Amino acid sequence: MSQRLIMHVDLDAFFASIEQRDHPEYEGRPLVVGAEPGKRGVVATCSYEARRYGVHSAMPISEAFRRLPPETIYLRPDITRYGEVSRQIMTALEAISPVVEKVSVDEAFLDISGMERLIGPPESIGRRAKTVIHQTVGLTASVGIGPNRLIAKLASDYQKPDGLTLVMADQVGAFLDPQPLTVLRGLGVKSAPILHRLGLRTVADVRRLTLRELRQHLGELAGTKIHEQAHGIASDRVHSDSERKSISKETTFGQDITDQEVLRDTLHWAAQEVGYIARQEGRLGTTVSLKIRFQGFETHSRSRTLPTPTAADLEIFRQAWALYRAEDWQGRPVRLIGLGIGGWESTASQAVCQGDLFDEMTSGPDPKQDRIYETLDAISEKFGRQSMRLGIRRRKD
Ligand SMILES: [Mg+2]
């Protein structure tokens, strides 16, 4: 398997830098873009000169005002203008890699795997991104390159502003270990104090705990996520913005249907179609939705969020069927029924099948089940989609 290489590009003090670029008289001065002093609201972005006073994004404007000297410039955000600059940047980045995922107005992930042949070593690709941005909009960006999104993002943050940090797969541990555990994502108001009370301060401290211990302290979901991240495991998928947000399948019946078994089978078929496509595209969804239409075009949608992301037919079907069953709809004639999956999640834990992680996972993705689906999908590919279906147990209920 070829080595994955993800680049994260993050503009430095984006709003403030645009203002300083467009108003040379603001250069070198503390500058705040955000709420008006004296009113409620927060700092959106501030210049590096303002950061020296301890001011940062999301700080209440009243506190920023107290800290900053009188010569500070306060501006209201000009979202239209910033949006235009953002579009210029994203277009420029597409010249480097066709796979650019904009994650915010001033941040993007690029999949640069295999681009070395075209551009050169990873450092050159990173430098190219910085140069292209500077030439296009006259702003500086910090760039991080790593084997997945988490590492790339932390790397871009590592030497701000105007930084370029490269973390290769064999350097991930050494890169993460000394960092404060607050760099891990999903450490919310609940988890952070728990880890703090346990005396954990750095990522290396967290790594010393087993998955089981972390789950005991933080719960299944947060414990698993923190464990993965502390080991540098994260998604390495970059989705261009044009990509679909969800996959769905629906059926309109020739005549209205009341037979529960037909509805059940139809949903099951739709789940197989949707699951197949999701697996082909390497996606795991966290949201399953149900769509149903009764006589007279009366249409309803229901959805639920899953504790564990999935692309498994039976799980998708089970969730959609539960959504149907939760309503008082049995016996009503159905004209259309369908389901969908979306809310894509990392598939990194599937990619990283080695190590002790899987042995300890109980509620995570089931590798055995994945193998079953791989086999089924391969057969389907060869003989057509109708050739094989996973049977479901029919239960009279
Ligand atoms: Mg930024």
Characterization of the model:
- The radius of gyration is 25 Å and the shape is globular.
- It has helices spanning 14-22, 48-51, 61-67, 79-93, 116-119, 122-137, 149-158, 172-176, 191-197, 203-207, 211-218, 220-230, 260-280, 313-325, 348-351, 357-360, 367-383, and strands spanning 6-11, 31-34, 43-46, 73-75, 100-104, 107-111, 141-146, 164-166, 246-257, 284-294, 299-310, 334-345.
- Mean pLDDT is 85; it is low at 347-365 and 391-397.
- A hairpin with a 4-residue loop joins β10 (284-294) and β11.
- α11 (211-218) packs across α12.
- The protein has 397 residues and is an alpha+beta fold.
- The two termini are 47 Å apart.
- The protein has a five-stranded mixed beta sheet with strand order 5-6-1-7-8.
- Magnesium ion (MG) binds at residues 10-11, 14, 106-107.
- Magnesium ion (MG) binds next to β1.
